[in-house]
Amino acid sequence: MSSEKLILDGTRVAKSIKETLVERIDHLTARGILPCLATILVGDDPSSETYVRMKSSSCKRLGIDSRRIHLNKAITTEELIAAIQQLNADPQIHGILLQHPVPPHIDERAAFEAIQIDKDVDGVTMQGFAQNAFGTANFPSCTPAAILAILDYYQLPIEGKHAVIVGRSPILGKPVSLMLLNRNATVTICHSKTNNLPQIIGLADIVVAAVGKPSFIQGAWIKEGAIVLDAGYNAGNIGDVDYKACYIKASAITPVPAGIGPVTIAMLLKHTVFAAEKSKMLT
Ligand code: NAP
């Protein structure tokens, strides 16, 4: 089995996605449209600052404009919503990304809902979530979309497979479950109240780790030959999967870093370009 073992290279997948965008960006800029992503960071959490900086510099490298809005951590929900509404109304902004998490006193759901659907490039609104559930979303959440993109790039079959998703957050666990279901996987969603988690994971052909706990998924839980997708990103570049132990059992596995992370950013860029194309069609 080891000779067939695949390390699912997110950098390679991201590169292939970005290559498809170059011509589209050229085409837009030739018509006077510079695709632009607005990122909103509230407060000064160092990891969030790093993520936002990475997203902005990825935009720049590809010729996408970005506008970074950095708001004081003491801002109110109303003030944050007002800032989002300004970006909604700005025709030069095509995508809006509110970096998660926001400080606890802010109503994050209300802030996400303030993002106009045609600028919701990270699929965080309830409308975007519902469209994703129906398989009609222009902008499915970026990390779930990245997971599907990796499976597709490596031509790993989804239909008929048993996918076990560990985590049920609205930006990751739930939407990726729906996307895999829409692709005819049989899906089991696990969470912090799930009983017999190791046994359930042991039934999976595809495991998606979206837990937020370093090295949580154990090698002993993984069925021989399963595909392991680690969406986790914890301090010290550690995923949610015990990589060394799971690598031994898996037929294919994403590393951390250079797994799902770079593909998530590529998806964000792809969605921003698509939003810019659609804005042109509307004018
Ligand atoms: P989250 O909102 O904290 O959700 C974590 C989920 O894990 C919850 O549904 C929780 O269950 C479940 N969980 C917690 N402890 C568990 C346990 N012992 N057994 C089973 N399930 C358990 O996190 P998130 O935003 O979805 O992020 C998950 C991970 O993905 C994090 O490491 C995050 O950094 C990473 N992430 C990566 C990217 C990327 O670009 N690669 C993007 C987004 C997030 P309950 O619902 O019962 O609480």
TrEMBL record:
Protein name: Bifunctional protein FolD
Keyword Oxidoreductase: yes
A single GO molecular function term of this UniProt record: methylenetetrahydrofolate dehydrogenase (NADP+) activity
Catalytic activity: (6R)-5,10-methenyltetrahydrofolate + H2O = (6R)-10-formyltetrahydrofolate + H(+); (6R)-5,10-methylene-5,6,7,8-tetrahydrofolate + NADP(+) = (6R)-5,10-methenyltetrahydrofolate + NADPH
Chain's role: Catalyzes the oxidation of 5,10-methylenetetrahydrofolate to 5,10-methenyltetrahydrofolate and then the hydrolysis of 5,10-methenyltetrahydrofolate to 10-formyltetrahydrofolate.
Statement: the UniProt record of this protein carries the keyword Ribosomal protein: no
Keyword list, A-Z: Amino-acid biosynthesis, Histidine biosynthesis, Hydrolase, Methionine biosynthesis, Multifunctional enzyme, NADP, One-carbon metabolism, Oxidoreductase, Purine biosynthesis
Annotated metabolic or biological route of this protein: One-carbon metabolism; tetrahydrofolate interconversion
Binding annotation for NADP(+): 167-169
Chain ranges passing through the membrane: none
Boundaries of every Tetrahydrofolate dehydrogenase/cyclohydrolase catalytic domain copy: 8-122
Membership in a protein family: Belongs to the tetrahydrofolate dehydrogenase/cyclohydrolase family.
Span of domain Tetrahydrofolate dehydrogenase/cyclohydrolase NAD(P)-binding: 141-279
Biological source species: Paenibacillus alginolyticus
Organism domain of life: Bacteria
Family matches, as InterPro entries: Aminoacid_DH-like_N_sf, NAD(P)-bd_dom_sf, THF_DH/CycHdrlase, THF_DH/CycHdrlase_cat_dom, THF_DH/CycHdrlase_NAD-bd_dom
Subunit field text: Homodimer.
Enzyme Commission number(s) from the entry: 1.5.1.5, 3.5.4.9
